[in-house]
Every structure is written in C-alpha cells, then in structure tokens.
Design a protein that fits this description.
Length: about 170
C-alpha cells in the first residue's frame, strides 16, 4: 500500500478515536456538538472516484452510529457531505483546474478557500444531521441555532487540528 493510503488510515483512526472517546461526550448547552471526524472525509484526495468516496463516507458515519448507539444519523449526514464534496471540492479547492490535491488542508490550499470549504461542508453536515435528529422534537429555530453553533465549533477544531498536526505541505 502506498504512503497516502497509510496516512489516511492513520488519520481515520486518530480522528475516530478522538471523536468517540472525547468529543462524543461534549454537548455544550444542548446546541454545540463538535464532530471532528467529518474532517477525515473532507481531507480525502480531491480526485477520488465517486463510489469509493461515498462508501468510505457511509462507513465512517456508520462506525460513529454503531459506537454511539444512534439510528443512522451520522451515516446519512456523512454520505450527503460526500456527495456535496464531489461538487464543491472542485469548485472551491481547485477552482475548476484539473489538479488533484492528495490531502486537502490549510497548508496546501489557500487558507480562505479551505476555511470556506470547511464551513460549507460542516454546515451541510449539521443541517442534515440536526434535521434528521432534532426537527420533530425541537423545532426549526433550535435546529438552525444548533447548526450554526456546531458548524463554528467544528470548523475551529478542524483548523486547530490542521495547524497542530499537519506539519508540512503534502504533494499536490
């Protein structure tokens, strides 16, 4: 297996362990639910084929669902994010150029484009997640507030992760 595959496996294990052991126990004020593991899906190579990307995203979400004893909310939200990522990664990160970024990160993409990408993808994730989980019990206003606050918290965590753990620029 090549180095990129091993790096992605290591990132999956690290982010999933942190999510399941630490962040799954954090739910601030009933509105902030940080989900750093979604960053694994967002950092997969931009030239990845659709079906493997969707299967990886579904499997990632299903793993969190099974570990947290949830009914499939994470699997649904991750799969939708992967579908949206296919379109938005080309338009935001590569700006329509035919290049493949092996590891999209704040270190090898213009920071404002990468942060825009993170905010958009996390907003989509949380809209789907909270719509499926909270809409019937809380209402539209609470769902939007939880989406906004959780998107900000997760984006800040993702940027912090990138700045602390991604040391050098990966090859584009």
């Amino acid at each position: 297996m090549n180095k990129l595959v091993w790096r992605n496996i290591g990132r999956f294990v690290l982010l999933m362990a942190f999510q399941l052991l630490v962040l799954s126990n954090v739910y601030l004020g009933g509105y902030v639910l940080p989900m750093l593991y979604v960053l694994f899906i967002l950092m997969l190579p931009t030239g990845m084929r659709r079906i493997p990307l969707l299967l990886i995203a579904f499997g990632t979400g299903l793993t969190v669902d099974l570990m947290n004893n949830v009914l499939g909310f994470h699997a649904l939200a991750c799969t939708v994010v992967a579908m949206m990522r296919i379109w938005y990664a080309d338009r935001i990160l590569t700006r329509g150029e035919p290049i493949v970024i092996n590891t999209p990160s704040i270190r090898n993409v213009t920071p404002q484009y990468f942060i825009t990408y993170l905010v958009l993808m996390y907003a989509i994730f949380y809209l789907v997640y909270f719509t499926s989980e909270l809409f019937g019990s809380r209402g539209f206003g609470d769902m939007l507030l939880a989406t906004f606050l959780s998107t900000i918290a997760s984006t800040l965590l993702a940027v912090l992760y990138q700045l602390l753990l991604i040391k050098k620029k990966d090859e584009v």
